[in-house]
Amino acid sequence: MQKASFFRIAMRTGAWMVLAFLLLPMLVVVPVSLTDHSYISLPGQGLSLAHYVNYFTNPRWLEATWQSVVIGVAVSALATLLGTAFAVGCWFLSDFWATVARWVLITPLLVPPVVQALGFYRFWVQLGLIDTLGGVILAHTLLALPYVTISVFAALANLDRRIPQAARSLGASVWTTVISVVVPAARPGMLAGALFAFIVSFDEIVAVLFLTVRNVQTLPKMIWQGIQDNIDPTIAAVATVLTLLTASIMVVVSLRRRN
Amino acid sequence: MTAPSSPSVLSIRKAVKRYGTVQALGGIELDIGEGEFLTLLGPSGSGKTTLLTAIAGFTGLDEGRLVLRGKDITDLPPDRRDFGMVFQGYALFPTMNVRNNIAFPLKVRKWKPADIQARVEECLALVQMEGFADRMPSQLSGGQQQRVALARALSFRPSVLLLDEPLSALDKKLRADLQWELKDLHRKLGVTFIYVTHDQDEALSMSDRIVILKDGLVQQIGEPGALYNAPRTTFVADFLGKSNFLDVEVEGFAGGRARCRAGGESFEVATEAPPAGGRGRVALRPERIRLAPPKGAAFEGAIRQTSYLGERCHVILDHPGFGQILVSCPTWKSGVVPEDGLPVSFDWDADACVFLEDA
């Protein structure tokens, strides 16, 4: 009994330490964002919201945020459309070549981001897409596609193959069958995929650094430059806002799922 | 007897389908009559489901034609054939409620909303599911889902309804109830039913005609009673009900009766023409054998084993010449009370035995 409870205490302490190790670096930005100094530091004399005010009033920060959102939404829509079309097509064929195609589409997950970004750079130069919004959207869409197809495949795995057959026998064309029977079954996977695609695009920086110069300024790139050029605590304020936003989305999603 | 009694609605001509080296359909010839209840019966791998999916348009034929009322439909896609189909496992659309499931074929045919509304109500009444229109398929029992699948397949008034083992997922009692309902529905609507099953009881109880398939070939076609009483091959005699088989030597033929010898015993078999060559095989139904106390009937044997089934009792007899003989006798009226090891005598009428062609 004595021994067992000692074991439990040790395990619990270990678990909490791992949790703290994971969470503290994330949480340390919160006091830093409230610092009353003009450089990255813990608050000295008192707390200040000056850096939040700076983020929400500085046109450069707002412009970067807006561009990140636009790119993220466009990537989410594009990747969901293409990824769903691909997954539905593979599901219908489900032969050897469909399996090969699935694996090929997932390979971007296996290639190091720097290598991919270099590849994008070489092609984008030839296509004249360097430093354009379209160029970043295209690159991010390619990076996000595997996430969408994987989650749509997962949703379709439960769909009885006789269901589209039933739709055909009841008079529906292939197109009507896909729209009215297959896509509704894929919808949970599409929603998850769209969210993944947005997140992939929203915090992607390697490809953005390779593909953009001055025209396109995303939020991760601003943060990166902010750390390089000066040690402005606004970065901590931005990080805190983003963390709060993500956490609240997670809470809303999990509450809705529970209902 | 092997041709439909009404004009043919669907004709299958030399249908061949191969999967690699396996021949799923080996040149099937079949005419299905207007308003007929036709059952495709066979063990798994016999080609019955392949034939049905070929009729529905999901399986392309390698050779042969399908003709619907004189029109060649071999190359038409499934959605342009206008056959209703009921699938194994129902295949209801999980994201639509009962009403929208039944309305689906009407919507794709661009019916007017008022007509759709009226027809859905009519179909729900047809399968006794009034009041379930707003339920989702996941909220229904297996039997209820089956009814909705039927209503959906019938809603657009197809001339032919294809049914792929529709009752196989239901429990025994519900299956028996739905057999009565299906038969009733068929009589009321006058729609041609093509029904696939591996269950001989289903086939016997509902069909106008049964097609027995094996290895992609038609073994025998006929009305249930005709098939049961006059099987042509060992396979049919064994698959449709149970049979005892005796290899006999024909010693003489007179007055429609063949004098036969098997296992050291002699008996008569009623037939129009005994097999040429003086040798043959007969099938003998277990329920046609009478049991009696010793010396009470022609052949003497002993009971090896009994199996009590409620209204019937199955008995395995040992006979020194015939070997093991299966007897099925009613429990409420029997010459003897079956008991393991009991010596008995037994016999049968001359018309209880049927000569088979594949002896």
From TrEMBL, chain A:
InterPro entries: MetI-like (IPR000515), MetI-like_sf (IPR035906)
Domain of life per record: Bacteria
Domain (ABC transmembrane type-1) ranges: 65-253
Gene Ontology cellular component annotations, sorted alphabetically: plasma membrane
Membrane topology: Multi-pass membrane protein
Keyword entries, A-Z: Cell inner membrane, Cell membrane, Membrane, Transmembrane, Transmembrane helix, Transport
Main location per the UniProt record: membrane
Gene Ontology biological-process entries: transmembrane transport
Localization terms from the record: Cell inner membrane; Cell membrane
Any Pfam family matching the protein: BPD_transp_1
Transmembrane segment boundaries: 69-93, 100-124, 136-157, 192-213, 234-255
Coiled coil: none
Keyword check for NAD: no
Family: Belongs to the binding-protein-dependent transport system permease family.
Protein name stated in the entry: Putative spermidine/putrescine transport system permease protein
Organism: Tistlia consotensis USBA 355
TrEMBL record, chain B:
Matching InterPro entries: AAA+_ATPase, ABC_SmlMolc_Importer, ABC_transporter-like_ATP-bd, ABC_transporter-like_CS, Mo/tungstate-bd_C_term_dom, P-loop_NTPase, Transp-assoc_OB_typ2
Lineage: Bacteria, Pseudomonadati, Pseudomonadota, Alphaproteobacteria, Rhodospirillales
One Gene Ontology term from the biological process aspect of the record: putrescine transport
Entry keywords, A to Z: ATP-binding, Nucleotide-binding, Transport
All copies of domain ABC transporter, residue ranges: 10-240
Protein origin, superkingdom: Bacteria
Protein name per the record: Putative spermidine/putrescine transport system ATP-binding protein
One GO CC term, this protein: ATP-binding cassette (ABC) transporter complex
GO-annotated molecular function: ATP binding; ATP hydrolysis activity; transmembrane transporter activity
